[in-house]
Design brief:
Blueprint (H helix, E strand, L loop, with lengths): L8 H20 L21 E4 L12 E5 L2 E5 L5 E5 L10 E3 L2 E3 L6 E2 L5 E3 L8 E2 L1 E4 L4 E4 L1
Antiparallel strand pairs: 1-11, 2-3, 3-4, 4-9, 5-6, 6-7, 7-8, 10-11
Bound molecules: FE2/S2 (inorganic) cluster.
Length: 145
């Protein structure tokens, strides 16, 4: 029997092994998450009494510019001695957002938040968390939370 498109036994076994390996990898990654693993913030969200020296972040000299001050918080100067602080944890499923074009962008599912943490694009439906701030001009220390 002639069969130009048939696989040899060796070819069949090789392709089966590749398919089985791909299925095993897919099963291990099948949690529905697209993009980086969701970030789980500490129970206190890391904000209680977090302090920064404003002078260590030169971009904070400009009113309105978002500045990442640690791995999960961003700060924006709103006036000579006033600041807003935001959680960078996405309100959709907890991934860490990134700052891009003075906005928050979530790489997991594409949510976008404006520079005040308000949702510009879902799937997130709630604004980013915001912390209270207090600034001591004599020491240049900003206390977040
Ligand atoms: S975790 Fe889904 S958009 Fe951010």
């Amino acid at each position: 029997m002639g069969c130009e498109d048939c696989l040899s036994r060796r070819q069949f076994l090789a392709r089966s092994a590749v398919a089985a390996a791909a299925a095993a990898i897919a099963a291990g990654c099948g949690n529905g998450q697209i993009g980086p693993t969701a970030y789980q913030p500490p129970s206190n969200n890391g904000s209680n009494g977090n302090t920064i020296k404003v002078g260590n972040f030169p971009q904070l000299a400009t009113v309105g510019t978002l500045v990442k001050v640690d791995s999960y918080q961003a700060v924006k100067r709103t006036g000579a001695t006033t600041f807003d602080a935001y959680s960078m944890v996405c309100t959709h499923q907890g991934c860490l957002t990134e700052l891009t074009s003075n906005m928050f962008f979530c790489p997991c599912h594409g949510s976008e938040f404006d520079s005040s943490g308000q949702v510009l694009r879902g799937p997130a439906s709630r604004p980013l968390g915001q912390y209270t701030t207090s600034y001591d001009a004599t020491t240049d220390i900003l206390t977040i939370g």
